[in-house]
Fold:
Amino acid sequence: MVFKRSNLERQVGNLPKKILWCKKCLMSNQRPRIIFDKDQVCSGCNNSDNKRKINWLDREKELKDLLNNHRSKKGNFDVIVPSSGGKDSAFVAHMLKYKYNMNPLTVTWSPLEYTEIGKRNFYSLVNSGLTNILVTPDGEIQRRLARLCFEELGDAFHTFVMGQISVPFHIAIKFNINLVFFGENGELEYAGDPNYVDKPYKPHKEWLKQHFKGVNFEELIQFGLKNKKYIKEIEKFIKKDNLWFYKPPSALDLEEKKIKGKYFFSYFKKWIPQENYYYAVEKTGFKPSDERSEGTYSRYASLDDKMDGMHYYMRYIKFGLGRCCEDASHEIRDGHITRSEGLNLVKKFDGEFPKKYFKNFLDYLQINESHFQQVVDSWRSKNIWKKINKKWSLKIPPK
Ligand SMILES: [Zn+2]
Structure:
């Protein structure tokens, strides 16, 4: 049996045919929106070099000016920090409160299925002195959307991403807060679209392309409603109020509230994940996992959701770039490891199957293993993969 997927996902069809690997890090040109220069160096590495020229004291002054314009004199919440309890958002929220005297409201969009360590870190952050609103969607709708996203967009976790971007802005509007601070600009830190890399915020008009795989929520839900296996059979239970958090507020609502977009702490403060980790351990009681995450060597990033591992695995299937490539590339740019050390790690861990929560994943989506495999194979492009003796491997691996 072959699973036939739609072309709702707009990224995979537009990737360069000739696969190139960055000479400095371990990113390939299959990462959506990445740019390679004439020396075969990726935009992530070039951005990283540019970061060395930034005067961070000037940037801090910019931050102070921005915060001075938003700080509440009446004791109201004055900045939203989207947070799961992970090290990066813990770092941002804690710094804003204790170093810059803001009154942050952390907003959490619930993971699809919390891990024990994720839940523990979430409460630890709250207990370090940060107020939180946890938004948890209708589990039945969420689960069905996750299956739709897994099959048609190649990523069940996309259900989470939609809310992760959208919910903080809905809460901002409800609480009259016009500053929303995310951690890092992913396009800058992990290589992507060079536009807006040197801007303190990303306006909402960019979100569709950069965060939602080019598919807007209405289109996705209409597709789901037409197909019984997704959400058609619960159509009568789907009400507007169960869905608002999956899509951002309208441009008009955002502009009316003077919300410019997603602000990035990484614009104002040099973003070094390892240092955020040490800060979070000390100040918010953050704990890493006891074991390395599957598919990589790190123990402190993306720990909250049992679906995280599959998210990275599907990226590996779609783009030939797994979790280890991401981690190693950032550490190469930060000077923590060399490219050849990174390459050895990638050879060892990249693309490792996330078996720890595999059964949870199948149970959550209510699919069996053979269907899972068909969906996975429907996302393997001939350009990236070859099959020899029933075994898949990358046609052009990094070297
Ligand atoms: Zn690079």
Observations:
- The CA atoms of residues 296 and 302 lie 11 Å apart.
